[in-house]
Amino acid sequence: MFLGKEKSGLKLAPSLRDLLAMPTLETTVDGLRLANPFVIASGPPGTNLNVISRAFREGWGAVIAKTVSLDSSKVVNVTPRYAKLHANDGKEVIGWENIELISDRPFSIWLEEFRKCKDMHPEGILIASIMEEYNQAAWVEIVERCQDAGVDAFELNFSCPHGLPERKMGAAMGQDPEVLEEVCSWVMAAAKKPVWAKMTPNITHIEEPSRASLKAGCHGISAINTIRSVMGVNLETLRPEPSVEGYTTPGGYSSKAVRPIALRMCMEIATMIRSEFPGRTLSGMGGIETGSDAAQFILLGSDTVQVCTGVMKFGYEMVKSLQTELLAFMEKHGFETLADFKGKSLEYFTTHADLVRRQRERKDAQKAGHMIKADSEWSGDKFVEQSQALAT
Question: Which of 146, 160, 266, 308 is catalytic?
């Protein structure tokens, strides 16, 4: 039974009021009901039905499958295709480069697995990541066929920094706001499910393509994809890495080293959404490995957070610690829902000129506070300082 007050060192059973006030990670984003905000980002962790099912069993809020296209015959991956940057201890991976392409599996197989996945996990939120050339018919076809297969939402890949640029796909499209807006309008005319547009960080002002996508009607933005990079050069062979037959190509950089850049870009997008497109959403990503990392993205305006490289480093089961740590943060600050602190830190960004003004005002106020206003306030211990404060 419930005890009225604590006796004999026993802990009180939680009251109904206490239970109702416990924080929850459940959230609804663009009509999608998620058990938590943690989403498998498009990439190897969502590369087929087997791994997608594993993610749902472990408790991820949603899974974005690896990017698909209508014609996979032109997608040919190489090995090795990853390179890692280690911390000084030689063990911890802080940076990860990949030159991996989108899915090389036939589109027909993906449609079959989408259907099976929804049969196996009817409550799981399955999001199709799609990418096509600058061709309206192709975009419309891939949208219609994927939604007929039962996917819950779409993420438009306008951001892969490597591979297939000759077909004007990925970042080659996402760096042109005018083209982006046109393609998004094609998608929105055909889509009956929520649509997120995934942004490339390989651009000066990420707000511009984000704005173009939202103007075309997209429900939300995903950001950021990987940063175009060269991991390094092997000083024994003098060849850049990852080396494929002695050669390489710039790839996409991820893992915890990119998090500060991702946070800055998510802040910029969220600020733009708040002022120009209230009600639209943001799915933030970039180096998230802990619940504390996730909390920072939500504080800067993200509705959900995505993880890819983290899963490759720690496994699908990391979602359990992500949830535990985020709930602990919420309980510490008295937040009951994600909405309670979404974007809460955005108001603390300003211009450098304003920082100078604020600091000057604080110093002036501090100086004024130290000034003697009556003879009775003089102190022998602080006589010199009080004298100086009265000087101009």
Answer: 160
